[in-house]
Amino acid sequence: MQLRPTLTMIAGTLLVAAMSIAYSMTGGKTMAVNLAKAAAVAIADAGGYGVRADFMPGGLPTRHPVLDGGDNLDEGTRAQIAQTVAAIPGMGGVRWADGTIVAESGAVPISPLHCQEDVEALLRARSIRFEESRATIDRASRALLDEVAAALRPCLGSIIAITGHTDSSGPEAGNLALSQERAEAVEQALVARGIPSDGLRAVGLGSREPVEGLAPADPANRRIDFSVIATEPLRPTPVDTPGAR
User: Fold this and answer.
1) At what angle do helices 142-152 and 172-192 cross, to 10 degrees?
2) At what angle do helices 112-125 and 142-152 cross, to 10 degrees?
3) I need a labelling partner for 27 at 20 to 30 A (CA). Which of 36, 107, 209, 214 fits?
4) Which residues span the domain enclosing 54?
């Protein structure tokens, strides 16, 4: 007869969690609105007629805006606009919708290769795990996904490929479907952590590419791989120049 107090406790915990998420989203939207106002002023001052800064790509607030429009502007003006927006206090990495990027104001740019190395280092000793035969990410892997998102954040503006793999047990059609669903689950988890969806590509390969040296049926082949692909060559300057398209 102690079920009712237990259910009450569970309901209370869920309510608190929901309220926390709602509060976080509200605060994030306020931040995005304030940064958007400051960006609009900076864009106008830089001569960016027709340029818009989107602080909610994918519907989630972020301090890493995507600049769009201004296709008729010369490259020098585009570069000035991005650098001016990046200099706003509290601003994160700025990128154009066509893929060119500018590092966070005052930061040393990090190449996509470094981002991939950082992610691989995180996954060398730990794996993103899922519930058995499902695409639901295991609760214990959420902290690891937080670290992966943080490692990928300096490479916003690059294309990040998320590849799901399985072992060879079971029909390959099912393996392909499960690996795709798991890659998409990781994609959604990264979007929820502030990585813009337009830079993510999820694909499932089933059991076609086992780990070198492992038998195809080895469970260690069940994994998620990341590849960070630069859309524009990055030059070693104090701030990446976002002019070239």
Assistant:
1) 70
2) 160
3) 107
4) 3-102
